[in-house]
Design goal:
2 copies of one chain form a homodimer. The first copy, chain A, has 134 residues and is mainly alpha-helical. Chain A is 60% helix and 7% strand. Chain A binds a DNA duplex (30 and 30 nucleotides) through helix 4.
Chain lengths: 134, 134
DNA sequence: AAATTCGCTTGCGTTTTGCAAGTGCAAATA
DNA sequence: TATTTGCACTTGCAAAACGCAAGCGAATTT
């Protein structure tokens, strides 16, 4: 059902084949920065993803080892989504997107203040964040 | 015709609104690493982009200030495409994609050897490459 | 027992993609 | 000069993906 067709051996191309669409990295963002973890939480994000698209992207990311589904500790009706190591490793890339956007868009102050931290010591920020995510 | 609808103020979302599809970053890649600059050159890349998609992405990237069209020095029939500062600033992000892919895919040796350089001194690599691109 | 929450799935109309062919202008060739 | 070739797109159309609303089964709450 969810077959991955690699267009070439290029690293950019292969990466885009997995998460190169308008939604996947927003799911990763939520998992990374907002700590949102349930299906319903993703739906609450500002961008308003459609339920079927969300389901297909979660499936795609899970198939490709970027996220995992876990039982929710509080309830059997809920599902917890979490980044894998492979997903956490997208952090440097996510930070660079943020820094690029910081240069060319007007960002919310909460994000600007986070980026102030990043700019002070990028490696330290990444190291700290990775620990907190795994 | 090419209206940009921002889904939210999130930097990831805003960035994806511009280049968050399966093709745009491959165009940026060609401009960045292969020095391909004409319309025909893009078509020659391994991924085989369709002509109409190429035209629409070039338009999108130009509208958003990531690339510029220039007269080709050799001929009026040809067009030269080049990264702007905004486009060159995507370099750190492109490198992080490469590094992520290096960890999870098997890459061609030419690219692996480039990444060896990158890993030795990332900032130096970026600095050098930026100069060469502008 | 009934209503609500949760994580999806389904249907369906609209948009985007992918492929092939065509167009107009510039440049090379005959 | 006439014709062919090359280049940068544009157009038409079928297929796939998207976006919205509604529905559905299992778990939880009332």
């Amino acid at each position: 059902m969810m077959e991955i067709k690699k267009r070439s051996d290029c690293p950019i191309s292969s990466s885009l084949d997995i998460w190169g669409d308008k939604w996947s990295l927003l799911i990763v963002r939520d998992l990374m920065f907002k700590k949102q973890c349930t299906y319903g939480d993703f739906l609450k994000s500002d961008e308003k993803i459609a339920t079927n698209i969300l389901a297909s992207r979660l499936q795609m990311l899970e198939t490709n080892g970027v996220i995992i589904k876990l039982d929710h500790p509080e309830s059997k009706a809920k599902v917890l989504y979490k980044l894998t190591q492979k997903g956490v490793d997208l952090l440097p890339l996510m930070i660079e997107i943020n820094l690029w956007a910081d240069k060319y868009f007007t960002l919310p102050i909460e994000i600007k203040s986070m980026l102030k931290e990043v700019k002070k010591d990028k490696d330290a920020f990444i190291k700290h964040k990775k620990i907190e995510l795994l």
